[in-house]
Amino acid sequence: MRNVTLKQLRAFVMIAKEGSFTRAAARLNQSQSTLTLQIRELEAEVGLKLLHRTTRSVEPTSAGAGFLPLADRLLDELSNAVEDLHALARGERGSVAVVAGASVISLVVAPSIATLAMSFPGISVRILEDIGDAVVRRVAAGEADFGLASIAQPSNEMESWFLLRDQAGILCAKSHPLARKRKLTWKDLTRFPFASLAQGTSLRTTLEKHPEVAAALPKPSYEASSISALVAIVEQGAGFALLPSVAAIPATRQNLVFRAVHEPDMFRELHFVSSRRRTLTPAARQVASAILAQLDAVRRLRNAEISMAASELDSLRKALDPRKL
Length: 325
Prior knowledge:
Elements: H1 6-18, H2 21-28, H3 32-46, E1 51-53, E2 58-60, H4 62-89, E3 93-100, H5 102-119, E4 122-129, H6 133-140, E5 146-149, E6 158-173, E7 184-185, E8 194-197, H7 202-209, H8 211-216, E9 222-224, H9 227-235, E10 240-244, H10 245-248, E11 256-262, E12 267-275, H11 282-299, E13 306-308, H12 310-320
């Protein structure tokens, strides 16, 4: 098939189906002379007559009749394959991997994917859960297309955009003594048992590095590896939980409240990280844009204790614009 062209195959299939050069030329928006030349070149290439011409009609020869369904299927499969590529280019299909912490997954990633699925059902998303530096490492290693990381160190290999910062505080029962204080400080927490995420998580690392906060906080009475475990501890009345406000929002319910802690105010930052070595696919850009939209919704929540940098978000939105590809 060195010199057989798609135009020749389309011409042969259309003429064989229509039984007429005139009707085939009209369907393909080409002249009859052009189709005649294409069929002549195709027959010369394969060394066989494929069409039998009479004064009234055109019919496939025995060789042409056997070749027709194969050529027709080949054109259909090629058309479908090209359409798949166009869908990938438009961001309508593809596979995307996202890595983030449990609280961000629960409040931001999962809802955004659910919304995205209604408009782009052809995009599949794999969610990886990790924390801190591990998020950045997994993106750098190519395990994820992008990540939402609380720790983002400048790097020649990684690109980072600041998304938001949320204030540290406690999740506790409404009946807890700390829930009734008008303004909470870190010193107020010293005499109560509390639960915390394991060492290495972004908020705990931030608090332990601050001398005033570290001096006020005793060692946690309980440690957990997930937000859901912390919430369960609080619900059982075993103490309060230290959490950033974004992590606490899903857990605030009828009997639980989140209270920001002051003097000093402590914050956890969230960054969008991607690799400079790999361009985000159109599908990954669609997922990232949906996540940004969900972040806007989170920002509008009452008592979220969240601040976002509008200029940084605008810069990221421009970078995710599919027209930049």
